[in-house]
Write a sequence for this structure.
């Protein structure tokens, strides 16, 4: 699967809905859920960790573990059942989170006894499937390839904005992790600053430690490899069942990978997801991050998923 089809729907107030498909699709559209009014966001500086913390006044009111009939990620069949994805069908969708804790437009920033500033950035949601009960491990490899290309497209678009310094696609899966929607989905955040831990990791990669390690991974730590990438248990794992997926070629982001490399990456992600769900014969809760390069570190950063 090389060519994909992308349709963009303007949702008003600067918000957009992106629909990605393997074949040209005619969508029936609806009004969808209304915007959240009165949300105020800002950043506060943590003096001991030297990092910014985001605050949002509306996050407490976001949708919490709805059933399929009330899920905001399911497609719509009529105006009576409103959704964040107001179309009658879709394969993969990305849209602006109504409860975003980061915003491009200026908002009121309170004056406190600590430093504060605008929470510049965006918060997107990416829905992997229109089926409420799908698990990532049950998706076809072709669907995972489409997800990769959707994330690549949107991440590249966000990084083209001069006000964005860093883009983080990620997924929190499972009630045990604290998700508020069980529909299969991830998120894409863009930041007007580089988070401190990301800056530290980026500086450390200037010596290419990850690229050098790939040729020295002990066989017992390798889960699967193909012609362009590898997945393995890192010797430095901080969490149970921690797995890294890394392309052999050092590239700064997902967008720079070739179609063959994206397809191989999808194969590795498909294999890993099945392994994780097989550990306890049930969907495995996890956190996943797509480690893209922050602005200014493109020449040394090695894209990876962990």
């Amino acid at each position: 699967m090389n060519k994909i089809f992308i349709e963009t729907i303007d949702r008003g107030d600067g918000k957009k809905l992106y629909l990605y498909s393997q074949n040209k699709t005619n969508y029936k559209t609806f009004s969808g859920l209304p915007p959240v009014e009165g949300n105020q966001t800002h950043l506060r500086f943590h003096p001991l960790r030297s990092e910014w913390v985001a605050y949002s006044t509306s996050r407490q009111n976001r949708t919490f573990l709805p059933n399929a009939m009330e899920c905001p990620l399911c497609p719509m069949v009529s105006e009576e059942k409103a959704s964040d994805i107001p179309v009658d069908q879709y394969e993969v969708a990305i849209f602006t989170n109504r409860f975003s804790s980061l915003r491009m437009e200026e908002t009121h920033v309170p004056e406190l006894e600590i430093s504060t500033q605008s929470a510049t950035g965006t918060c997107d949601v990416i829905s992997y499937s229109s089926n409420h009960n799908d698990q990532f491990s049950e998706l076809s490899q072709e669907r995972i390839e489409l997800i990769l290309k959707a994330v690549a497209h949107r991440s590249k678009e966000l990084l083209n904005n001069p006000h964005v310094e860093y883009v983080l696609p990620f997924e929190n899966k499972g009630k045990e992790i604290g998700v508020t929607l069980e529909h299969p989905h991830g998120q894409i955040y863009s930041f007007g600053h580089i988070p401190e831990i990301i800056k530290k990791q980026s500086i450390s990669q200037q010596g290419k430690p990850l690229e050098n390690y790939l040729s020295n991974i002990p066989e017992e730590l390798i889960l699967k490899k193909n012609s362009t990438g590898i997945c393995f248990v890192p010797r430095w794992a901080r969490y149970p069942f921690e797995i890294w997926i890394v392309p052999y070629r050092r590239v700064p982001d997902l967008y720079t990978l070739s179609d063959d490399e994206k397809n191989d990456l999808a194969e590795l992600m498909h294999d890993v997801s099945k392994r994780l769900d097989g550990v306890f014969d049930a969907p495995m809760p996890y956190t996943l991050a797509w480690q893209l390069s922050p602005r200014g570190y493109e020449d040394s950063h090695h894209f990876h998923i962990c």
In short: The radius of gyration is 19 Å. Residues 229 and 247 are 4 Å apart (CA to CA). The longest strand covers residues 5-12.
